[in-house]
Amino acid sequence: MNELRSLCVLNILSDPLIAAFADRETDEGRTQFLRILYERSAEQNFAAYVADAVLTDENAFSRACAAGVPVSDYLRRAYAADLAKIAHALTIEDDAFCIGTAPLPVGNWDDAAPTRLAAYYAQNGYGRFLAHRAFRFTGGELVPIRALSDVTLDDLKGYESEKKEVRDNFESFVAGLPYADMLLYGDRGTGKSSTVHAMVNLFAEKKLRLVEIDKENILSLPALKTKLADVPMKFVVFIDDFSLREDDDRVSTLKAALQGSMEGHVGNVMIVATSNRRHIVEENFATRMDSVHAGDSEEELLSLSDRFGITVLFASVNKQSYLSIVHAIAEDMHVTTPKESLDLLAERWSILRGGRSPRRARQFVEYVYACEQKDVPVEV
Q1: pLDDT, tens digit, for every residue of 320-348?
Q2: Cis preceding linkage at 105, omega within 30
Q3: Which of 43, 138, 274, 330 could form a disulfide with 192 if both were Cys (CB 3.0 to 4.6 A apart)?
Q4: CB pairs under 8 A, 24+ apart, for 276-279?
Q5: For 138-314, which CATH class?
Q6: Model's pTM, two decimal places?
């Protein structure tokens, strides 16, 4: 079992359960292993748990395969030897748990396993980016977002031309073609953020991942881009609900990140921001009047928005568009309330809750659906 301590490529002993498995020779060690095993619900197929750790491990082999870099014979042999050590360690019997079997692409730890894993990494990426589609950049680290929205483009009703423009740019980005950073702006509830999430879900199988950075943390953008530049994946750096004051130090940092520095466009990073306003810098008239070169100051501020190569307006919907969205969502959810009644209730809902928007439409239809399922009147 201590042969797991001699793995030279794989880093799976950083997992507490596998580390405990490697040190289970003593009664105390075995007890500790079983305690962690049961806590992680891995007792019915421990081999599958180990295989998942192997699959998502970040190491020289998986990183090179994901990047399309040739793997040397030395590294391939060392990686194969590690898999053989793991396979041998799992050839035990213990009444306290079931070893089970490892699923593909690891399979039965045979000689073809390195080839299968190499192909898998080349197509899907490697390490933590296999286990998670989205991250938050905080404290200089990428922290997984475990509850990412599963929204799809079909879920988002209306705004067909806007979604097409965004999708076309994403397609170019993941295909390695020329692309542009994007600013999606418009009123609240029009689906700007949901469109970004839908794009990430759509292109996740093409090694696209999302990294969200808070607007308060914009000064960390250069460090983030540097960190991502060496990762063989595609990343959307997402800044949600973004605005700045004109005297904010972050204005120049963001401008530099948007193709404005000598670093230029990092080929695997695209910046996408959402805002409720076209000119994301809040301008102050008093400051403008105090400026010696007021015209130059104004141009400086407007140039920030212009640094986004593509700007897409998600405008407020009128009554007809709003009701059209209500009907589309109601059809998806199999709502049975008659159309005439639905229209009257939907309009009343929008008046009471601050206006028409796709978000209001979905909230309304979900409320109607819940009422129908509970067989209670729809009261707005």
Answers
A1: 999 999 999 999 999 999 999 999 999 99
A2: yes
A3: 274
A4: 276/185, 276/186, 276/187, 276/188, 276/241, 276/243, 277/185, 277/243, 278/185, 278/305, 278/311, 278/313, 279/304, 279/305
A5: alpha beta
A6: 0.83
